Amino acid sequence: MVKKTSLVEFDGNYSSQLSYKFKYDNDELISAEMYNNNVAEIVIITKKGMGIKFSSENINTMGKVASGVTGISLKENDEVIYGKIIAIQYGEDLNELAITSNDKIILVSKNKEKKEVDIEDIKLQNRAGKGSNIITIALDDEIKEIIL
């Protein structure tokens, strides 16, 4: 699940206000980031090596107790282990995309397989898709660590 909320929603007494709502009992927060760009890209990576990147414009702003919208459709026994906001920069004419990001991450599986992934190489898709395979791992393996 992915959620975009205005900071104005969090004004007031923090100790007595609910500021999130999970869809399922076993859900947990993976990442929370603030950004002030109008447009950004969201990157999500799962423990089974799937990755998705989509525009923040595909997420409507919602209240703080909303549970959010689907960011990636998970396969059975898969879960999200990484989420990041990537700011988009535009050229001088504001219509030409310049550089999005030069971020690279290293994925390490529990069987010690390693792969360096350039975030720009993750395919831009629609929100709630299955994503694309960014690392090939054995059936009994999974991503254990992400090094930034």
Description:
- The structure is a single chain.
- The model has no long low-confidence stretch (mean pLDDT 84).
- The protein starts with 39 loop residues before the first strand and ends with a strand.
- Helices cover 0% and strands 26% of the residues.
- A four-stranded antiparallel beta sheet has the order 3-1-2-6, with no helix packed on it. A three-stranded antiparallel beta sheet has the order 5-4-7, with no helix packed on it.
- The chain has no helices and seven strands.
- The protein has 148 residues and is mainly beta.
Radius of gyration: 16 Å
Number of strands: 7
Number of helices: 0
Unreliable runs, pLDDT <50, ≥5 residues? none
Order of H and E elements: EEEEEEE
Oligomeric composition of the shown chains = single chain
Largest sheet: number of strands, sense, barrel closure: 4 strands, antiparallel
- Report strand order across the widest sheet: 3-1-2-6
Shape: globular
Calculate the mean pLDDT score and round it: 84
Beta-strand fraction estimate: 25-35%
| Distance between the amino and carboxyl termini | 22 Å
Percent of residues in helical segments? under 10%
Structural class: mainly beta
